[in-house]
Give the backbone structure.
Amino acid sequence: MARKKNKKFTLEKVEIIDAGAEGKSVGRVEDKVVFVPFVVPGDVVDIFVNRRRKSYFEGVAGKIHQYSDKRVEPRCEHFGVCGGCKWQNMDYKHQLFYKEKQVLESLKRIGKLELHGVRPILASREIFFYRNKLEYTFLNRRWITDFSRDLDFDSLNMNGLGFHIPGMHDRVLDIHNCYLQADPSNDIRLAVKAYADEHKLDYYDVKNWTGLLRNLLIRNTTTGQLMVILVVRDNDQAAISGILDMLAEKFPAITSLMYVINGKTNDIISDLEVHLYKGNPYIMEEMEGLKFKIGPVSFYQTNPKQAFELYKVAREFADLKGDELVYDLYTGTGTIANFVAKQAKKVVGVEYVEAAIEDAYENARLNDIENTAFYAGDLAKVLNEDFIEINGRPDVVITDPPRAGMHENVVRQILAMEPEKVVYVSCNPATQARDVAILAEKYRVEAVQPVDMFPHTQHVENVMKLVRK
Ligand code: SAH
């Protein structure tokens, strides 16, 4: 194993021992770990190292000397290139094992927490077609997967409609088939691509900021409603209505057909006008008889069936009797707040996206829920003495922050408010462990429930019940 400093080299016959938090698997060589994607714990592989750091290497797998018995045949033809489902070659029960391990190790190693009531991870009932939202990108530079020596580049159609190649904003993987969203999601994407190619419409060029077609968003609900949003750069009504009329005719299942003109250099559409072309301005999701209105840019958990399971865990941990004041921090569109409202005296939700707060109120009205109140603002600033004076001291705090976890001010304010219970829903066990370590000053961990919302990815949710000591 000859190695020169800063040169690429190969590590031979490395045994893969773990599946890491970034979606890469982990091997160990002498005193270093090596991160490598698309292999499975138990494999023995050669690794081409393309990055070396003081304490670790990164690389790609070459020859596989031994295949792990944790492997399964990946179902998707795009596996290994697409960034979407990096664990698809690992048997689902082993995916669950590594997710659970990630949660428990974070809580012990980062949080140094004493844990009680640790439950086995809740598996997702569906491991394919579980997403309710996909966003595809049109680019005039697709990633070439059918590469061969005699490829005729001049006659090659370089247009692609699919997902970005990981880490490359200017390259797209043209998707033939994706197992993430139920039918007719694939057919819609393929029909749009066929129409665009037939009519020689320009795909977006990120280098020059030219080209008409930019994004295609498809959202659905468990109730069978379907929203399609076409995002274009220019107000080319002939092309827009050409595509949308074709979709309306071919796919009667579409209940909301929309378009957005985005002449900016970024893909964000929440600050732009969404034009309704046909159908309803929103789709409607349902959960336990409650209705949730989802507009084109509204947030909703992307695995809706498993979100229901997650919310049931949060509600069980909150263990409400009916006379409690509950704070729902990072409430988004108020889904958790409205979901637990019936069991509480009052629920106060806080969230910094104003449009989400409007959705939260709308959802409360829609379901005749009168005991919720919502505030828009940055929690690190809003959750202060005045706020508590106006809204009252909470008996229970439910919190569901983004990956970064809670701002320390928020954690400190929870300690100061001293609710009897804190239910912490997290999509990042590392930041959850960090925050709960601070809360441990006054709280003990009474229950831990990891939940899998995203099969074939390294992502894991975790719900913790903290009770005042
Ligand atoms: N509980 C919701 C969504 C949680 S996602 C649900 O289950 O649907 C986390 C939310 O936190 C996002 O809506 C995000 O906009 C919000 N958020 C992130 N940082 C925030 C901050 N500093 N103050 C208030 N809200 C914040």
